[in-house]
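Q: Here's a chain of 50 amino acids. Please give me its 3D structure as tokens.
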Amino acid sequence: MTAALAGGIVLRHAARGVQRTEDVARNNAHDGHHHVWDVERILNHGTAAG
């Protein structure tokens, strides 16, 4: 991450277009948050908390 930021690395994503390193990191963090939420919902399915 540090090297990619320092090097100005850019990803050319087929669907999302041009993304800077910080964009990729932000998107991955956002997607990861939602994946954790999905897994928690699955694990809690059928319990009083779910």
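Q: Can you summarize the key feature?
A: The beta strands are 10-13, 17-20.
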